[in-house]
Structure formats: C-alpha cells, structure tokens
C-alpha cells in the first residue's frame, strides 16, 4: 500500500463521512422519535438533489442559498407527509408505517421519473481546492462538511436546549407520559418528521454539489443510511454523524487495500453485520 | 394435523389450486405467465410471513434466500447438467442451511436491529457473489438456449417451471397453516407477544426461532431456482434485489400479517394492481404514482391488512379465514 | 366517523370487483382474438398468387403490429425513452409514406404496442408473452439493455417470433443459440477497441492503461474484451478492477488509480457513475492523457459537470455527425436504404424537440431494418423475413448492418462500427461533442488532456 494513496484516502474518507452522516441523520431522528422506518428516505434525498438543481438552473440561485430554501421546503413537506401518510397509522402495528412510507416512495419515484427521466444531472459548483502532496481537499467538500457539522450542532442544541426540542425527546421517550405533561404529541411528531425530511433533503442538496445524480440516486444513500444509523446507535441523531465518518473512513481504507475495489461493499456490510452482532447498540450508543 | 381437517384448509387448497389450474386448463401462455408471477410472490410473501408474522422478526433482506437458491440451482444446472427439479431442491436446502447458520447469531438481535442485520446480510451476499467467479461474477450465468431441449423444448420447460412454482406455492401455504396451527406455531406466537414470558412457559425461543427461520428460507430458495431457470439468466442485481424484498413485506402487510391467507391475498392484490396499471394505457407513465396512491389509501384505511380487516369486521368468518 | 368505514367497505368492494373483473376478463378474452387483428392473420396465410391477383388492382391496407416493452420507469428510463422515440419517428415516416408496400399492392400499416417493463426482468417475460399471445404482434423489438433483452429473447425464440434487438450490446446474449434474434448494436466487445486504437494513434508514447469498470454485466463484458486487445497492442494494463454499482464517491478509488500512474483510463459504467467519475478525475487533477468512459459521455446533460467534461472520450453507436450517405455506400459497394442522416436528425428534432442520441438512432434503425426485410421478402411470414435478414448487408443512416449467420453466433451484429466522441471546447469556449474516431468519420482531431 502506497503512503500517498493512504493519506489521500483517509482524508477523502473522512470528508465524505460527514456527508454520509448528515444523510442518515433524518432517518435516525424519525425512527428515534416515532419508531418509523422511513422507506421514502432515499427518494426524499433525491428530491433534495433536484430541488437545489432546479433552483440553481432556473433562478440562478447559489446552491448554498438554495440549500436553506430546500431545507425549509423539506420541513413543510415533511410535516405534510406526516399528516397525509403517517399520522393515521402511527398507533397501528409497528410495520404498517413501512407500507405507508413505501407508498410515498412509489409516488415520488413515479412522478420524479416522469418529470426528470433518469438522465444524469449535475451541479457545476467549484470552490477551488487545496493540494498538499497527494492530498487534495475540495472547497465544495469542505463547505459541505462544515454545513453537516453545523446541522448536527444545531440539531443537538434544538433537542437539548429548546422547549420544543425537549418535547421531542419527551415524546420519543414516552408518548403517553408526554401527553399527560401537556405536550401536544401530534404536533411534536409532525415537527420531528418535518425536521427529519428537512435533513434528508438538505443532505441531498449537498450531495448534488459533489456528485452527479439521477432521480434514483437516493436508494444507495438509503441503504448506506441504514448501516450508518445502526453504527451510530439507532435513534441517536448525533451518533449518525460519527457512524457516517466511520463508514466514510472504512470505504476509503478498504478501497486502497490490496483487495480489488469490488470487495469494498463485502467488507463494509460485513463489518456492519459483525458490529451489529457484537454491539447492537452501535459503536457510540450506551450499552 | 387437525389443521388439515378445517374448512379453511380445503378452501385454501381449492382456491389456490383452482387459480393455479386455470392456465393449465385453458392452455393460455399469457395467463400462465401472469399467474406464475403471482405464485412466486405468494411464496415470497408467505415465507416472510412465516418468520415475520408468527415471531415478529422482520426479515427485511429475505430476498437473499431467493437469490442464493437461484444461484446454487443455476450453477448445478449449468455446470453439472443437473435436472432442474433436483437442482431446485438442492437450492432450497442450501438456502435453509445458510439460514440455519446465520440464524443462530442473528436471531439473538431483536426488533429493528434484526431487520437491519438482514439487509446487511443481503448486501454482503450480493456483493460477494458479484466478485465470486465460479458464479460468473458481475456478468452472472446464462444458459445456452439448447438447455431447454432437455425438457422437450423451451415451451415445455416454461410449463414445467409453472407446475413447479404451483406445487411450491401450495406447499408453502400448507406449511404456513400447519406451523400456525401446531404447538410449535403457538410457541412462536407467544414469542411474538412476549419472548421472555414465552421462555418462562418452557418454550426455547432460540431453538424455535432458528428452526422457523430455516423453514422460511426453504421456499424462497426453491422459488428463486425456478424463476431463474425460466429466465435463462441470473445476475447478482436482479437476484438480490432489496426492493423485491421490501415489496414482499408490503404484500404481507397489505394482506394482513400473522394470517395464513393474508400474504396470499396481499401478493395477488399487489401484483394484479401493478400488472393492471402497467398494461393499462390510461395510466401509462403514471402507473407507479397511481400504485403508490392506491396502496396508501388501503394502508391508511385498512390498517390491519385486507384479511385482518375482514376478520375484524366479520368475526364469524374467522373460522374460515386463518 | 361512523360513516367512514362503510365508505371504505365500498372502496374495498369496488377494488375487489375490479380485480375480480380483471381476473375473469382474461380467460374469456382468450379464445376470441380481437377483431382488428383477425383479418391480418387470415391475409398472411393467404399470401398466395391467387390472393394476390385481385389485390393488385385494388390496393388494400392491413396493419402489422410491432411489440416491445420500454422502461418507462426505473434505471433504464432515459435511454429506453430515446429508443422508443426513434421507433416512433420511423413509424410516423412509414405511415406518412402510406405504409410498407408489398408487390401485390398491399400496404402494411405498422402499429406499436408496448408496456412498461420497469427496467426489471421480473415482468419482461410475462409482458412479451402477452404481446405475442394476446396482442398478436407480428414482430418484436427488444427492451433496452442486455439483461432485459436476453429475458425477452427466450420468450420470442420459443414462439418463433423475429426480434430485432437494439440497445442490447452484450456479446453473450448472441452466443446462446438463438435463431430468430437479430442484433443491431455493435457488440460490447468492440466498445473500447477504437479507444485503444485512438490512443495508439494520438500518443505513441503511452504505455500504461487502467481499465476500471462498474461491476455489472455490460461494463464487465466490455472491459473483459478490451483487456486482451490492449495487451495485444503492446499496452501494460496496470489496473483492472471493477467497482460496486452502488459506489457513490470515487475519491479513494481515484487515489488507487493514481498510484499506478496510468497514461490512460478506460471503462466506467452507466450514467451517474460515469459522470461522477469524470468530475472527480478532474477535481483531483489526475494527470492521464486520455479518459474514455462508457455510456455517459454521449448524453447531452454530461456537460453539466462543466470543465470536467472536456477531453472525455466516449464510444457511441451513432452520432448526429456521422457521414453515412448513399455516396459512402456506393464507395463501400453496399446498397443504401432509407432516410438520410440529415433528415433523421431534423425530423427527430421537429418531433421531439431534442437531439437524437444513439439510442434514438437504434430505435429508428430497428424499424427500418424490419421494413427493409419485409419489403425484400415481400411477406410478413417469419420464415421468409428471417431468410432475408440472414442475407441482409447494407448501409443506412445508422451505418452498416449485417448479421452473423454462423450457428454459434447467429444474429450477432458483424458490420456496424462504433464512433468515438470527445467533449471539446470551441473557439467561443463552449463545450460540445466532436467525432474523433475512426479517421474516416471524424469531424475534429482528438485532443490529449493537459
């Protein structure tokens, strides 16, 4: 293994890890608060990608300004999605929500394919790059990482320091008790769902500034998010960031290992299953 | 075996068998193809229900057994000229065996952790097979068209595949009923409700779960073998397609989980709905959206699944509808 | 709230009735073929001199149905859509010209019948069976992509239907012993051959090639054929590795490629991965002299990655700038048939308001070849059309077409050549594609990356 490739890959893995983490955060938040595995997570990420693309191409909006709008849009969409598709079945058997969110998945992909076909799209954003030796740090990735960190800190602050955030945690812990304390759990659930979707769409927007994408690109991140969410501790949004970094680093290192690069997912998911068996609460969760 | 004397058993046999016999009676190729797909999905949904509906363990990546069975059987047919029936049986057995070995550690996980672990396993196996040259790696394996001459031409081969899938579907449905009505099945349901309490009652949850997981992997293995025999080609992507797994889960929930008839009804309704929308020119490109919309309506207003809803609405039907 | 369940009951009942109706309708519709198709079956059987004489005085029209599945949804949606549009344009052209004329004066009016295959093999066989048995199609066109085409070919073959495959370049499909399947695309084994020749021509000093590919059937078979060819040309294949189809970030892989210091990178896979790869190679300032990627570069939206698109080379089955013409046909001593390149491009633009891609050309050519085969055999009888297709050797706007008649590779495309495009900047600094290979077809010289 060549030392240049090693150092470059560690940096690359670390940089992408933050974004993977952000992409998984919405999924874990929604699961943590209401035990819903959101099967529309991938399509929602893809919607974030297209939203920022459309804003940039049609209104000439800077993608980072677009990101703010996309996240606000995501919040509204998420709250709407909650009331339309989830609220009625929130107390039904646990898995019923799988069907509900899967239906939303079908609808988004169905409409998205008609609107955008599966043509590959890309945002041409460049913020320059810094290069030292074999290591290249892209401006776009650095900014995306920064935003991921800000989003995580913001979410943490919201959950632990604000009244609404505390209510979210109370509802997550025990919905009935929270209601007895005068918390309107319906609105808290809707708000949490909205934040989850906003995070997913936001991460989609950031991914769009880095990679090319199609309307189906969200699926890959959805599967990756399942892994990250477990590594970070199921239902723990801050842990998701760490889980993302672990996966990013693992991918970076596995890729440049002497094994052919095709084995990377074998290693990645293999490690995931093993960690799950050894330490199901995640790498960073409390035992 | 008292389950075999209930009206439900005979109803099930007559209905499923009757539908299955339709294309044989009128010799229609296109009807055979339609029902083949329905029966295949019935098998996938029913076997997921055997583990998920009876024990509460959601096998998200259950499709892994479909792919494994398909690959093992295909390998035998292609490289060792094994007839497709024994090849399929071996495919099913290997799937079961792998489920048994995996089940011992993985079934210790509960709830969402187990579900996510099964996704991980499916992805590991998919990417492993993609790199595994004896199975053709990324390009997969395919038959020379002449292979079908050994079965009296491809036309006959497709009929054989159909008979096989019908037999497996019936076996799967009957097994599902037998398990549910047996002492073993009652033990499983107890595990679903409260694993710790079940243990106190003298049920060995670990053993029961592994056993039922092993059984539930057998039928998808067979179905995979038959499906890919009929297709003439097997590739990692379509063999370990996580989406197909999720769709099968949806079918179980749609029909009503934990019931024997639920997954069958769910698979038939889901597949017929999709097939109808796809071939109907009114919906053309919007069929996916319409399918999602209809599905959402059903989910929101019939939360217990179609069969579950019927059982709730008409308690007297319960005797006839497991 | 009491009202709701009863309304639901209604919904449930109506749904149930709906499905019941569908299920019941199928068998009953079975024995009686739809009236529109019935006369056609009769005529084709009565394709005898006796039947022909009266028809000569009074030209009759009958329709022929061409069936296929298209990927309206799923991963193959984009190329499949273009392919269908190409076929649609052919159909419009033929209809406007009064159909396909037989010698007895009969005009065959082609019609299309298609379903969505969702880019998945699951329903392909069921839908092709339906096309053959219920819609009674006369000829079949393949779905887009090798995997789907192969699943469809099994059904087509067992029903003795002729199927023209387009959008399916895989070699192995055509080595399965099919007898009624004809391939229009130059097979995958030739996709990178020209790129290697181009490199040889452009930079004789280049020695090392990295072959990288998406681990899925098409890309894998392409590089598996390119590797021995590169070696035979004296190249050192320094890296031969496939990445998982789910790969999102290529940065670590590029580090690995970089460590082998290649002169050229060739391979790739499909749309999003190819585009991302090109983008990241540029961002990481990888100093190779030639990058040739599969599938993605000929797509117009490829330029959305901006400067990263520059210098990227891509193989294409056809480009609007190709130079096939009646004169070129004469020079090659081949018959010419059908529309000119110019008319095809302008017709397509007028009809669909977009530039045709090679998928579009493949769709049109599938119809065109079928038309030629029917005209030459003066019949729609499969056996006769098949004999004509076996003999066919001609040039069209799409290029040369000839099918293998060897038993082992029957129906495989043997004459069609690929062209190679490169994204280049014009004097106004605007990105566009130029044909850079083969020399006979090129519209600009290829450029090495700086």
What does this 3D model show about the protein?
The complex is a heterotrimer of chains A (about 290), B (about 325) and C (about 450). Chain A has 11 helices and 2 strands. Chain A has a single domain, classed as ABC transporter involved in vitamin B12 uptake, BtuC (Orthogonal Bundle). In chain A, strands 1-2 form a two-stranded antiparallel sheet. With about 290 residues, chain A is mainly α. In chain A, about 60% of the residues are buried. The model of chain B has no long low-confidence stretch (mean pLDDT about 90). In chain B, strands 1-2 form a two-stranded antiparallel sheet. Chain B is mostly helical and about 325 residues long. Chain B is globular and about 55 Å long. The two termini of chain B are about 15 Å apart. Chain C has 2 domains: about 55-185 and about 320-415, Rossmann fold (3-Layer(aba) Sandwich); about 190-315 and about 420-440, Response regulator (Rossmann fold). Chain C has 14 helices and 15 strands. Chain C has helices at about 5-30, 40-45, 50-55, 75-95, 125-135, 145-160, 195-200, 215-230, 250-260, 270-285, 325-330, 340-350, 360-375, 380-390; strands spanning about 60-70, 100, 105-115, 140, 165, 180-185, 210-215, 235-245, 265-270, 290-295, 310-315, 395, 400, 420-425, 430-435. In chain C, a hairpin with a 2-residue loop joins strand 12 and strand 13 (about 400). In chain C, helix 5 (about 125-135) runs parallel beside helix 6 (about 145-160) and helix 13 (about 360-375) crosses helix 14 (about 380-390). Chain C starts with a helix and ends in a 13-residue tail after the last strand. Chains in contact: A-B, A-C, B-C. At the B-C interface, helix 2, helix 5, helix 6, helix 12 and helix 13 of B face helix 1, helix 5, helix 6 and helix 8 of C.
- CATH-defined fold name of the largest domain in chain C: Rossmann fold
Largest interface: B-C, 57 and 53 residues
Structural class of chain C: alpha/beta
Runs of chain C with pLDDT <50, length 5+?
A: 1-57
Structure class of chain B: mainly alpha
Spatial order of the strands in the main sheet of chain B? 1-2
